[in-house]
Amino acid sequence: MEAVIKGSTMPVLEVMLEPGESLVTPHGELSWMTDNMTMSQTTQAGGGGLLRTIKRMVGGGGLFLTRYQPEGSSGMVAFAAKVPGHIVPVDIQQGRGYLVHRHGWLAGTPGVSPVVALQQSFRGGLWGGDGFLLQRLEGQGRAWIELSGELCHYQLPPGRTMLVHPGHVGMFEEQVRFTMTRVPGIANKIFGGDGYYLVALTGPGEIWLQSMPLPNLAHALAPYLPGREGVETVEAASIGGVLGGLLRD
Predict the structure, then answer these.
(1) Which terminal residue of the chain, N or C, has fewer Cβ atoms less than 10 Å from its own Cβ?
(2) What is the pTM of this model?
(3) pLDDT in tens, the chain (249 residues)
(4) Nearest to 168 by CA among 215, 115, 114
């Protein structure tokens, strides 16, 4: 298996697979592939049976994963980033996993499995019903993680804590301790009545923080997107125009 990350602002993960090798991804991540690549669905990654499948679904994943495997000769499959950012490869071993944000896992070798690590609900604003969710990547193999915007990497020494807005948490080693901490006396439109929450990451270990989390991007774009009323007006105008043209004919 040979993997190359191409591009800069909108990177692409391109993986060349030999016969007998395979790659597993969340459903729907494919961008392009050679014609000898086969796609199949599986409910398991990294072993663990039904229990691990349920834990993966609780962690934000679907019931099925997609497996890519070449037939007859080597083949290539590619996955493009969904937003400007970075694709980061990590090697996962027994006792050395990684925690990533809910949309972070792009692809992995069959020995890698995602399960839920933390699920925190907020009542309103930016997070809506989605809340804050971390996936734990465990097992044995290599995984590729998609992080949004610019990337800041820190090595936390033992006992050093970084307080991070939940959306900016991209990935960190599982040996890093994490807790949700609420800033008292602050309630804003982002978190509704829940106040202001931060994630406390405590070393030792490496952390990767992202500058443009997807919920923040969606929140920033919301004022510039047409509401349902605007969409219905456009649809009505279009339908009226079509009917008018038919009547005139």
Answers:
(1) C
(2) 0.77
(3) 999 999 989 999 999 999 999 999 987 789 999 999 999 988 765 555 555 555 555 555 556 789 999 999 999 999 999 889 999 999 999 888 999 988 899 999 999 888 877 655 544 434 444 557 788 998 999 999 999 999 999 999 999 999 998 889 999 999 999 988 877 665 554 554 445 778 999 999 999 999 987 767 777 777 888 765 544 444 444 444 433 444 444
(4) 215
CA atoms of 81 and 154, how far apart (whole Å): 23
For residues 87 and 103, what is the distance between their CA atoms, to the nearest angstrom? 12
Hey, what CATH topology would domain 2-224 get?
Answer: Double-stranded beta-helix (3.60.160)
For the chain, domain boundaries: 2-224
Per-residue H/E/C for the chain: CEEEEECCCCCEEEEEECCCCCEEEECCCCCEECCCEEEEEECCCCCCHHHHHHHHHHCCCCCCEEEEEECCCCEEEEEECCCCEEEEEEEEECCECEEEECCCEEEECCCEEEEEEEEECCCCHHHCCCCEEEEEEEECEEEEEEEECCEEEEEECCCCEEEECHHHEEEEECCCEEEEEEECCCCCCCCHHHCEEEEEEECCEEEEEECCCHHHHHHHHHHHCCCHHHHHHHHHHHHHHHHHHHHHC
Q: Which of 63, 92, 79, 90 is nearest to 6 (CA)?
A: 79
